[in-house]
Design a protein that fits this description.
Largest sheet: none
Structural class: mainly alpha
Shape: globular
Order of helices and strands: HHHHHHHHHHHHH
Oligomer: single chain
Distance between the termini: 39 Å
Strand content: under 5%
Number of domains: 1
Helix content: over 70%
Length: about 300
């Protein structure tokens, strides 16, 4: 019976749920390994090593050049993505897992604004609603004391870093969208760890911490879960229901709440529930608006 139920779920949705679950496991491992005293830059470097090996094998399997055509833009995508990843990992290690994950999902707001400026894409009404929902949701999560003075606030620096991570993710997405017309997806993915590895090692400097076996296993799992998440995301986008399946990526927030509770005894506040719901609602409205626009264009 359970197998039959799973078979009835569209393939794109299954892949997206797998991706969300893997990314939630990845962020949980990042938070866990940080308790072993492993610096954020070292975590990024470890992930980059695993991703670089897997991505290189994938590019060679396709029989194409690893260097691509638009090298400057590919390097820019790698650099922006790397800095965004550093910000996201810092937020994960210094904020509750649920809050860090929710703040990352503000990237559709930044993506819409950047697409308007650089890709000349018109902002839809659904996107405007999304932006308003996200702003209100962000205020409720970050500074609930605006409503009730007794409510606890999150550390401002960590929140700002998390927002920079979401902004960097949006910039990387816009660059990828421009690269997609001339570059293979595997080459675009390959440049991410190619730039992230040396950049994180330079920033790490002399702060390298030799991990014990448990920490080393967590570092390896971060790279593996990341790759599983990316494969699931790519597979979902290759199916006919990919655009609809995108909405299911937000279940990562649910997984993060569960892992935060089980592994770190973190229970989100009422304001996180309300603010997070507004952010996710806004993102889903944005996805729905994009689907309706595509549907009208195809008729």
């Amino acid at each position: 019976m359970p197998i039959q139920f799973i078979d009835n779920i569209p393939a794109g949705v299954r892949y997206m749920l797998m991706s969300a679950f893997a990314f939630a496991l990845m962020t949980s491992c990042v938070k866990l390994v940080s308790t072993y005293g492993i610096p954020v830059f070292e975590i990024v470097a470890a992930r980059a090593i695993v991703s670089l090996i897997i991505s290189y094998v994938d590019v060679r399997r396709k029989g194409i050049s690893v260097w691509g055509h638009n090298k400057k833009l590919l390097i820019a995508r790698g650099a922006v993505g790397s800095l965004a990843l550093i910000c996201v990992y810092f937020a994960v290690t210094t904020l509750p897992l649920a809050e860090a994950t929710i703040l990352q999902y503000l990237h559709p707001v930044f993506t819409a604004l950047l697409a308007l400026i650089f890709l000349k894409e018109r902002i839809q009404r659904s996107t405007i609603i999304c932006i308003l929902c996200c702003i209100v949701g962000l205020l409720l999560i970050v500074s609930p004391s605006l409503a009730f003075s007794s409510a606890a606030e999150l550390p401002l620096f960590s929140v700002v870093v998390a927002l920079f991570g979401a902004f960097g993710s949006a910039v990387a997405y816009v660059i990828v969208k421009r690269l997609s017309s001339s570059e293979d997806s595997s080459v675009i993915i390959f440049y991410f760890p190619l730039v992230a590895l040396p950049l994180s090692l330079v920033l790490l400097g002399n702060d390298l911490v030799i991990p014990d076996p448990e920490a080393l296993m967590l570092l390896i799992l971060i790279g593996i879960f990341t790759q599983i998440g990316q494969v699931g995301l790519t597979k979902a986008m290759q199916t006919e229901v990919a655009s609809k399946a995108t909405a299911y990526s937000y279940v990562q927030v649910v997984f993060s709440i569960i892992f935060g509770w089980l592994l770190f005894s973190e229970i989100p506040s009422m304001w996180t529930w309300i603010g997070g719901s507004l952010i996710i609602l806004g993102a889903l409205i944005n996805v729905s608006g994009s689907l309706n626009l595509r549907s009208r264009k195809s008729k």
